[in-house]
Every structure is written in structure tokens, then in C-alpha cells.
Amino acid sequence: MPQHRYGGPGALGSAKGDDVPLWALSWGPPTATVHSRTAKVFETLGDRRRAAAMYGAATSRPPGTYARIVALDLVAQAEMQAAEGSVEEACATWGRAIDHMDGVQSKRTRKAVGNMRRDLSRFRTRGLRCVAELDERARDLLSDRR
After folding, report:
1. If you placed Cys at 33, which of 18, 27, 91, 114 could pair as Cys (CB 3.0 to 4.6 Å)?
2. How far is CA 5 from the centre of its chain?
3. Do the Cβ atoms of 61 and 53 come closer than 8 Å?
4. How far apart are CA 112 and CA 116, in angstroms?
């Protein structure tokens, strides 16, 4: 794995063979967790483009595992994309997040879907089909969980 200039996931290579504490694995593979935490740093620094990229990289967990965490990282990625004005890209990412929420019972994912609907409200006046379709999926998801 290459070393990244920000000392992120590439730095994990130096600890090969070290045991990862069990508590640290609750978020998934260490590399994905580091990507997610790095994304939060970039978000805090106001670098939404890099934050979005790192949130996307954080979703690299084994298929069918950590669905809630993957969904929340995708939601965060979509929020960064929407904040940068990439509405269609954000809608696609939010759609993937909803796909991962299937069968997940979590207050955090429910809240994330509510926030997504609120974030989408500013784009509804543009008449974008992806916004209307995503809002309908979100509404259905929330009504199914009552």
C-alpha cells in the first residue's frame, strides 16, 4: 500500500503483523476505519473534495458486512458532494447509502435519511429527476420503519 502525503492509510503498512485490538475491529477493517477518520479530519478542515474521496474509500469493507457503517460513510460522502454542488453525484451516492440500509435498524441511519431529505429540499426547485426519485425512496424507507 503506498504512503500518502497526509500519513493516512498508507501508514498502516508499517504495523503489519501487529494485533488489532478487538474494540478497533467493531468499525471494520483498519484501513477502512482510517479512511473514515481521515475523511472527518478533511471535513473539519473544510476540504470537502478530499473528505468525499476518503468517505468513498472508507466503504471498502467486505461485501455484506458493516452495512450501517458503510451506509453512514456513503451519506457523509454524499453530503460533501452536495455541498460542492455535485447534486447528481450526491444523489447517486445517497442512493447507494439507502441500498446499504436495507434491513438495518438504527436511529443514526434513520436520522441520516431525514437529514438527506432536508438537504435535498434546496435542490427540489431545480426539477432534477434524481432528487425526486431519491426523495421518494427516502420517504418510503422512513415510512417502512415506523
Report:
1. 27
2. 23
3. no
4. 6
Q: List, for residues 54-66, the tens digit of each pLDDT value.
A: 999 999 888 888 9
Residue holding cell 437529514?
115
C-alpha–C-alpha distance, residues 4 and 11, integer Å: 7
The answer for residues whose C-beta is within 8 angstroms of residue 14's C-beta and 6 or more apart is none
How far apart are alpha carbons 110 and 106 in whole angstroms? 6
Residues 6+ apart with CB under 8 A from 9: 1, 31, 34, 35, 38, 57
* pLDDT tens digits, one per residue of 23-53: 667 777 888 989 999 999 999 999 999 999 9
